[in-house]
């Protein structure tokens, strides 16, 4: 295997965003690139070419990005300078006819902005457009052949990288197909499969917490950890994305559990990497994915719960049922909530369960990882404790990012009474700043050739393999009780029952 690309500062490049008129580009990508540029973290020479079918001139497009949905980039004094780096090409990127013009723009802009030949293709498109656009990039000769055999270190060959958005397939077969399509045009070290949860500051902090602190690593295994809970709950429903969410590619299991939550779980579960090189880190993550126990069909009712919200009230406001959202089927079986008990079959984890859950229209917006420790071997204080509360390491990703240790302490005063107390690392208080947006951090990595926080093809394949039996079972056995939770609650009672059967409970604080 040739060595992986060495991480360098962000390199001069032209960034092509396909899906430029869309929500993600305007709400996240352009603001993230602006942020990098303002902080001096963008390449010295770079420019952006947005491509989508809507008709905009360069100036109209810049205006649209500068005033999008409350972003209000245009009010920043530095926007006027940055906007000149943003360009637009109206084109159907899935059709061959528009590509001569796209290529011409690439030539002109690379020259005008002195970006050299480095190209970053960002596919911010619906998944059905991934394949035709990748094929068109290849057919138009935009990817340099044989670059990985270049041995002259001082003259780095030009690179072409591709960032591909989620969803990456909707089952193991479609994910494998997309990987093959990508591999026909790009080498693996040029493919950046993005997962914006890997850009979140507290997710990136997980490796530091585990591997920079002798406090935690010795207890990070089945001997001391009773179980792990990972929750990503949202108060919003499907918000105008009903048609996508209700399609065979939608639902909470595919949208959140298979992708974001299993990614987070893999960092909780991985072995220490040999070094921090992307290849070493991803090798350890891949091992976790390969060790994920693939459930048998007959076990699915015991280890997985699906839910769908009915009418309810979120933050005091009436909330309509999922089935009455635009684009959904009145008899829809789509899961807007999923809870799954996974096992990582490795020496470290033994039979320690990882409970993952995610849902829309729930009681609170929160993403957190909770490590529940086992009780002490002998209950010395059983007379003093009202009830035994296991020690918890709570990693709050959002909101209130931070890490909180919950443990037993002596109540003040005469006599020996015990109560749980919290030791709190509050991110915003400690660093006097809010966490930066994940997209800025991930784009920065990509521009410097660091794939650590991007997904390897084997991670995706194994995560689909572990989820597919659940999805198949749900398809073959329609639920009769949907909708089974009211909007604004913590999901269906079946999810609590699943935990209670194991003598555990969800942390809903
Ligand atoms: N929005 C978000 O917060 C998140 C989005 N994602 C993912 O990002 C991707 C984009 O999402 P989002 O921005 O929300 O989607 P949108 O529907 O808002 O945008 C899709 C974009 O694709 C463009 N497009 C469609 N067909 C073509 C074509 N043939 N040629 C060129 N452009 C085309 C559309 O523009 P036009 O009609 O003008 O051609 C539009 O700009 C999806 O894969 C989504 O799953 C992931 C995480 C979060
Ligand atoms: O990828 C997705 O993530 C969002 C939730 O992201 P967050 O950063 O706000 O936690 C989710 O709403 C969306 O359905 C999903 O596609």
TrEMBL record:
Gene Ontology CC, one term: cytosol
Ligand binding (substrate): 196, 200, 234, 255, 360, 365
GO molecular function, one term: glucose-6-phosphate dehydrogenase activity
Domain Glucose-6-phosphate dehydrogenase C-terminal: 207-507
InterPro entries the record matches: G6P_DH, G6P_DH_AS, G6P_DH_C, G6P_DH_NAD-bd, NAD(P)-bd_dom_sf
Positions contributing to NADP(+) binding: 19-26, 53, 166
Residues covered by the Glucose-6-phosphate dehydrogenase NAD-binding domain: 17-205
Pfam families referenced in this protein's UniProt entry, alphabetically: G6PD_C, G6PD_N
EC number: 1.1.1.49
Annotated keywords: Carbohydrate metabolism, Glucose metabolism, NADP, Oxidoreductase
Top-tier EC class: oxidoreductase
Reactions catalysed, as given in the entry: D-glucose 6-phosphate + NADP(+) = 6-phospho-D-glucono-1,5-lactone + NADPH + H(+)
Example GO biological process: pentose-phosphate shunt, oxidative branch
Pathway: Carbohydrate degradation; pentose phosphate pathway; D-ribulose 5-phosphate from D-glucose 6-phosphate (oxidative stage): step 1/3
Residues annotated as catalytic: 260 (proton acceptor)
Keyword Hydrolase: no
Family of this protein: Belongs to the glucose-6-phosphate dehydrogenase family.
Role played: Catalyzes the oxidation of glucose 6-phosphate to 6-phosphogluconolactone.
Protein name listed in UniProt: Glucose-6-phosphate 1-dehydrogenase
The species this protein was found in: Phycisphaera mikurensis (strain NBRC 102666 / KCTC 22515 / FYK2301M01)
Gene that encodes the chain: zwf
């Amino acid at each position: 295997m040739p060595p992986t690309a060495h991480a360098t500062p962000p390199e001069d490049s032209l960034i092509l965003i396909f899906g430029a008129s869309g929500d993600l580009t305007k709400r996240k990508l352009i603001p993230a690139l602006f942020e990098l540029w303002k902080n001096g973290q963008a390449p010295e020479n770079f420019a952006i070419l947005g491509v989508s079918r809507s008709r905009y001139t360069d100036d109209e497009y810049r205006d649209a990005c500068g005033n999008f949905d409350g972003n209000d980039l245009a009010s920043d004094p530095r926007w006027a300078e940055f906007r000149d780096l943003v360009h637009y090409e109206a084109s159907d990127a899935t059709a061959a006819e528009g590509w001569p013009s796209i290529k011409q723009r690439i030539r002109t802009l690379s020259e005008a902005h002195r970006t050299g030949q480095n190209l970053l293709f960002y596919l911010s498109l619906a998944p059905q457009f991934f394949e035709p656009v990748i094929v068109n990039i290849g057919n138009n000769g935009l990817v340099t052949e044989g670059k990985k055999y270049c041995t002259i270190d001082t003259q780095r060959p030009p690179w072409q990288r591709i960032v591909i958005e989620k969803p990456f397939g909707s089952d193991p077969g479609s994910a494998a197909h997309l990987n093959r399509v990508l591999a026909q045009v790009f080498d693996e070290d040029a493919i950046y499969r993005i997962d914006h949860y890997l850009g979140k500051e507290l997710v990136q902090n997980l490796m530091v917490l585990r591997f920079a602190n002798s406090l935690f690593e010795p207890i990070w295994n089945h001997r001391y950890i009773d179980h792990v809970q990972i929750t990503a709950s949202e108060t919003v429903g499907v918000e105008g994305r009903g048609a996508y969410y209700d399609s065979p590619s939608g639902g909470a299991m595919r949208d959140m559990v298979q992708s974001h939550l299993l990614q987070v779980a893999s960092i909780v579960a991985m072995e220490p990497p040999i070094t921090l090189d992307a290849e070493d880190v991803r090798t350890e993550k891949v091992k976790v994915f390969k060790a994920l126990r693939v459930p048998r069909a007959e076990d699915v009712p015991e280890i997985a719960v699906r839910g769908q919200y009915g009418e309810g009230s979120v933050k005091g406001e009436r909330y309509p049922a999922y089935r009455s959202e635009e684009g959904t089927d009145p008899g829809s079986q789509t899961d807007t909530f999923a809870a799954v008990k996974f096992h990582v079959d490795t020496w470290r984890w033994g039979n320690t369960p990882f409970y993952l859950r995610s849902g829309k229209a729930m009681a609170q917006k929160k993403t957190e990882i909770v490590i529940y420790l086992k009780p002490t071997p002998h209950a010395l204080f059983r007379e003093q404790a009202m009830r035994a509360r296991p020690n918890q390491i709570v990693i709050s990703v959002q909101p209130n990012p931070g890490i909180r240790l919950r443990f037993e302490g002596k109540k003040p005063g005469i006599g020996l009474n015990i109560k749980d107390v919290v030791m709190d690392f509050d991110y915003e208080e400690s660093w006097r700043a809010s966490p930066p947006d994940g997209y800025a951090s991930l784009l920065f990595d990509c521009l410097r050739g660091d794939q650590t926080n991007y997904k390897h093809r084997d991670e995706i394949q194994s995560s689909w393999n572990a989820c597919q039996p659940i999805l198949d079972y749900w398809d073959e056995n329609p639920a009769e009780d949907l909708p089974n939770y009211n909007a604004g609650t913590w999901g269906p009672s079946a999810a609590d029952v699943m935990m209670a059967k194991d003598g555990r409970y969800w942390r809903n604080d």
